[in-house]
């Protein structure tokens, strides 16, 4: 019966020391988690649909030469990472929805969310970095080691890669915001 | 004089609603932040000292051809990112030390730590990913786009890159642990 955020409003009379109500931004949490799901889905779909085949001269004859995401380990890691984050975001969106019905369990959930969000952030940020590192070589090449740029030939493929990376970066920012949100909500429940 | 470790001991009688003492793992926080500083420093130093020059045949004559971290935008990003995290870790180690003296401000600090740790995690995880993506091409090449492996020639350079990436990964894991620690400490201060 000690305190709530809104002064004077008593709640939960049975508990000996109820937590302060704190701010409740559960709806924002659900929205952000759904955004993460959308970003993960789009990132994966855009990348895997970007395969492109071009005719390349080989010993004087034009030979069809495909560019596929599967050819680059960095892009494979990207697809795996964002598949994991997509799955994770479905589970946590449901968890976040269920916790709206059970506000007394919210503190425990916030702790779990923070743990797993941090891990997912590490995974998808590194995947975005790996994809971007390889894509930059594809775009500009690296003359020092004679790695030629390929985006002049594979324009559609590179556009898909660029779009996918941009959405991946957006997804990473969403996870950072989710960590902010959980931290802020947890902090607001600590008595001053 | 306000808080103690042992639960249930009445404390800070002047405040109307004292925070629960919670767990106090400030020492572990300082140690982890120092580890992040050491990892950042080692990652940067090992990468920038890895330059190697080899003789390469060019039009029939051997020509000295250097391999430098500066030649790859991904490695430049890596060095910048870990320089930032090194600087950040110095500042937050001092902040974490100062908060041991002022435990009443700890909750506020934990929130700030969580915010900035999440941001730094995003930066160094993506830098580690970018570096690893490029290093993997250097190690294995990519026959689909005729990017040749270079680690067979530049062995010392590649060893430095690999060492630096391993330490960078370690640094990223340390930041994840820091987020876990702050979240756990904050959670322990919320009344049950």
UniProtKB/TrEMBL annotation, chains A, B:
Cellular localisation: Cell membrane
Composition-biased stretches (Basic and acidic residues): 1-12
Casparian strip membrane protein domain location: 26-173
Residue intervals passing through the bilayer: 30-50, 74-97, 109-139, 165-186
InterPro entries in the cross-refs: CASP/CASPL, CASP_dom, CASPL
Domain of life according to the entry: Eukaryota
A GO cellular component annotation in the UniProt record: plasma membrane
One family name in Pfam for this protein: CASP_dom
Keywords (A to Z) from UniProt: Cell membrane, Membrane, Transmembrane, Transmembrane helix
Residue segments, region Disordered: 1-20
Mode of membrane association: Multi-pass membrane protein
PANTHER family hit by this protein: CASP-LIKE PROTEIN 1U1
Homology family: Belongs to the Casparian strip membrane proteins (CASP) family.
Subunit structure, interactors included: Homodimer and heterodimers.
Protein name: CASP-like protein
The organism's taxonomic lineage, starting at the top: Eukaryota, Viridiplantae, Streptophyta, Embryophyta, Tracheophyta
